[in-house]
Design goal:
The chain has 276 residues and is of the alpha+beta class. It folds into 2 domains: 4-128, Alpha-Beta Barrel (N-terminal domain of MutM-like DNA repair proteins), CATH 3.20.190.10; 146-269, Orthogonal Bundle (Helicase, Ruva Protein, domain 3), CATH 1.10.8. Helices cover 25% and strands 22% of the residues. The protein is globular and about 55 Å long.
Length: 276
């Protein structure tokens, strides 16, 4: 699933390419997306057709396309991509939303696995959207202090630290890839109970989260399978230290990277660098 660096990269590149351009047509596939729910086709059409794109930005793992006083809230799901293609280029399978722009280009939302989301909102109502209402702080925001992060960890029950990093109510935008990488950088075993971390270790973890997210942004995201931004694939997969490296030597200590299951996801860690 695209995480903060992938979604932020998509937002930045989309903003650069389409800001200020008018939507002249809207095409939907009619397929159901997240949770098998139908897309509000009439609402999407009202929100976009004839309007000018004024801004594209990210909140957590969501993209917001602002169109005058309306907005489209987009989640890429597991396999979604937002790409800009010439109108003349044949639309690939699994293209579920097309915003045709003046200038003979179009924004295409392509989602083979259909876990994504497209939902229209009036811009004034976006802050209260159910998808955004319970999100935690942005990890790269200076407003999130080490003290706040430590207190958030202390407020959890018996949850493991890896699970807390994935909980969007505590910190928004971190997913499986960057949680594994951050725990490695901080030298923290993913199976430790979050509330048991000392303040210095919590501070080190927050800094590690920021380090791996910034690295991911510099590399335009991690492309392992489906992810691509408007300007192409990311390169951060080449910088990964533990994620998807089971059975390979740790780049730091040489021990073999291991994998374990946590909450239905694979967690990758180094038993030498991340001891209990």
């Amino acid at each position: 699933m695209p995480e903060l660096p992938e979604v932020e990269t998509t937002a930045r590149e989309l903003e650069r390419r389409v800001r200020g351009r008018r939507v002249i047509d809207v095409v939907l596939s009619g397929a159901r997306l997240r949770l098998g729910r139908a897309v509000d086709a009439a609402g999407v059409d009202r929100a976009a057709r004839g309007r000018r794109i004024t801004r594209v930005w990210r909140r957590a793992k969501y993209l917001v396309i602002e169109l005058d006083d309306q907005a489209l809230l987009v989640h890429l799901g597991m396999s979604g991509r937002l790409l800009v293609h010439p109108v003349a280029l044949v639309r690939p399978p699994h293209t579920h939303l097309v915003l045709v722009l003046e200038g003979r280009e179009e924004i295409r939302f392509i989602d083979p696995r259909r876990f994504g989301l497209v939902r229209p909102y009036a811009l004034a109502e976006l802050a209260a959207a159910e998808e955004l209402a319970e999100l935690g702080p942005e990890p790269l925001s200076p407003e999130l202090t080490a003290e706040d992060f430590w207190q958030a960890l202390r407020g959890t029950q018996g949850a493991r630290v890896k699970s807390v990093l994935l909980d969007q109510r505590h910190i928004a935008g971190v997913g499986n890839i960057y949680a594994c990488e951050a725990l490695f950088v901080a030298g923290i075993h993913p199976g430790l109970v979050a509330r048991g971390l000392s303040r210095p270790r919590a501070e080190a973890l927050l800094e590690a989260v920021r380090v791996v997210l910034r690295r991911g942004l510099e590399n335009r995201g991690t492309t392992l399978r489906d992810y691509a931004a408007p300007d192409g694939q990311g390169a951060n997969q080449q910088a990964l230290e533990v994620f998807a490296r089971e059975g390979k030597p740790c780049k730091r200590c040489g021990r073999m990277v291991r994998r374990m299951a946590q909450g239905g996801r694979s967690t990758f860690y180094c038993p030498g660098c991340q001891r209990r």
